[in-house]
Amino acid sequence: MDDMRKAPIGRPRGFDADAALERAMVVFWREGYDGVSLSELARAMGITKTSLYAAFGGKEDLFRRALERYAEGPASYAARALTAPTARDVAHAYLTGAVRASTQPDCPAGCLGVQGFLAAGHLGAGARAALFAWQDENRARLRDRFRRAADDGDLPAGTDPDTLAGYLVTLANGIAVQAAGGTGRDDLQRLADTVLRVFPPF
C-alpha cells in the first residue's frame, strides 16, 4: 500500500511500463534517435512527459532501455544462433536471423542498433556507451563461439575467430541498411545464402 502511495506523480492509472517501452522501441527503430522528440515519444507511448521522466528518465535513458528491449526481442536471434551445432550453422542462423529481423512485416525495416549508430554523434555518453557495449558484446559472443569451434576442429586451422565474428556482424549491419533502403526479404536472403556458400570465407 505504501509503495502505491509513493508512485511517481503524473503516472496515469493502468500505466503499463512494458507496453510503453515496446512502443518507444518501435518509434526509435522507425525514426532513429534524432528523428523523434521527447513529446512525440510520450505521445506514442500513451503517457505524459512527466510520466515518461518518472518511469524511464530522459530521452537518452529511454533509448538505452529500448535498445535492451530490442536485444531481448527482435534481435534475440543473435543469442539463439550461438546454440547451433556447427560454426556454419551459427553463421546461417545469425545471417538468416538478421534478414528476418530487418524485414518483419509489422515492424520498421532495418535494425534499431544500426539506426542508433547513424546518430551516435548526437547521443549522450550513456546512450552511446550502451550502443557500443551492445555491439561489442554481440561480437564477443560470436568470437567465443567460433573459438570453441576452432578448438573442436570445426573451423580450418588458422581461422581468426575475432575476424570471423566481425565479418558476420558487418554483414548483418549491411543487411539492415539494405532492408531500411527497401530491399526485400527474398533478395536479402539470397545475398546471405551466397555468403554462406563460401563460409568460412578465409
Automatic annotation (TrEMBL):
Keywords: DNA-binding, Transcription, Transcription regulation. It comes from the Bacteria. The lineage of its organism: Bacteria, Bacillati, Actinomycetota, Actinomycetes, Micromonosporales. Residues 14-74 form the HTH tetR-type domain. This is AcrR family transcriptional regulator. InterPro entries: DNA-bd_HTH_TetR-type_CS, Homeodomain-like_sf, HTH_TetR, Tet_transcr_reg_TetR-rel_C_sf, TetR_C. One of its GO terms (molecular function) is DNA binding. The keyword Cell wall biogenesis/degradation does not apply. It comes from Catenuloplanes niger. PROSITE patterns: HTH_TETR_1, HTH_TETR_2. Residues 37-56 bind DNA.
